[in-house]
Amino acid sequence: MDQGIDFFFGNRSHAVKFVEFVAKVAPVRSRHNKQLVSHDPKSNNCNYKYTFSVEISPICREDLICLPPKAAVSLGNLGPLVICTKVTNSIALLDPFTLTHCFLDADQYWRSSFKSLLTGRHLVEYIVLDVEPASSEINVGGSKCVLADAQVARVSDFGKNDTIFSIRTHLGHLLNPGDYALGYDLYGANNNDIELDKYKGLVLPETILIKKSYEEKRQRKHGKPRPWKLKSMDMEVDNSRGRGDQEKTNNEYEEFLRDLAENPELRFNISLYRDRDYQASEIASVTDGGDIPSVPLEELLADLDLSDVEMGDDGMRE
User: Fold this and answer.
1) 238 C-beta neighbours (distance < 10 Å), count
2) Record's superkingdom (predicted)?
3) Which pTM value belongs to this model?
């Protein structure tokens, strides 16, 4: 939520544990205060109201960032245009043109805090016309990357113009001619960023690709069920909300499930369970789009069924 969320706890220690938990999963800065509520002069007992204020970094995975000059120098002249590849209690940044990467912890981030230049809502779909690898495969922060020179065109330009962009991308190990990819359109974007103005003479690339898109192949498999499900993240949509808000929530949840299937790093701390209603024969009949990333069967946990069979006279059930 834009203005944040308020949590109320009956015990101060519970609030402290919650603040510590948030600090482990996201770059945050916090401060606390206390206010006297009541004072008993006879027993000299005081009741305080404790308030903890926690600010979470707005940087998200797949965001395009323009690093401030001081931050770029402190990180070994990284960037200045970088991609956020992972967010935990630190921020993983990748230079898509040199495959240089680094980790920015919470203290480093808040020392020279910055915002995203473009976010996932600004992603544009491209079609890959040609790809030529420019380097060998490199392991970057646990993920494989290959620099490549590519020619791409916006899908929205088909039938309107013949604009083609010649770019360099870090997705050379994934892309082939005819594939689709999602990226940021710096050629047509109107960027009013303070950090960009600090780099005089900086030539912006026309396009920065972020990830491969499987939407075209998913449409061919439309209606096919997933062999897995999330038990701990069931959707609960408030009926009082508008239809547009409900559709937006459903779309965001669906996009989250797709990201889980495509990125093994996102599934690291999430338990996925086999869906007993899933029909394997339906997938076997699909002959197109077989290269869409999916969750391997060995990662799925079988359901734990508790039957009502009594174990003798002691009343125990298994």
Assistant:
1) 8
2) Eukaryota
3) 0.75
**Distance between CA atoms of 222 and 224, rounded to whole angstroms?**
6
Cα(318)–Cα(309) distance, integer angstroms: 6
Q: What are the tens digits of pLDDT across the range 69-99?
A: 888 888 888 878 999 998 988 999 999 998 8
Q: Which residue has the tokens 């590519």?
A: 150
What pLDDT shows up at residue 288? 45
Which of 102, 22, 115 has its CA nearest to residue 68? 115
* C-alpha span between 15 and 30 (Å, rounded): 12
**Average pLDDT taken over every residue of the chain:** 80
The angle at the Cα of 219, spanning 244 to 302, to the nearest 5 degrees, equals 90
Residue entry with tokens 């009949």 = 285
Query: Half-sphere exposure (CA, 13 Å, Cβ side) for 230?
Result: 14
Q: Write out the H or E segment, with its range, that includes residue 38.
A: strand 28-40
CA distance linking residue 187 with residue 206, whole number of Å: 4
Could you give the count of Cα atoms lying within 13 Å of 282 in the half-sphere of its Cβ? Answer: 11
Burial of 117 (0-12, 13-18, 19+ CB in 10 A): buried
42 forms beta bridges with: none
Cα 218 from Cα 289, distance rounded (Å): 7
Tokens of 119: 């976010």
DSSP code string of 193-241:
-HHHHTSTTPPPPSEEEEEEE-HHHHHHTTTPPPSEE-STT-----TTS
**Residues 248, 257, 240: CA angle, nearest 5 degrees:** 30
Look-up of token digits 């039957």? 307
Would you call 26 helix, strand, or coil by DSSP?
coil
Q: What is the mean pLDDT of residues 208-228?
A: 71
C-alpha 150/C-alpha 133 separation (Å) is: 8
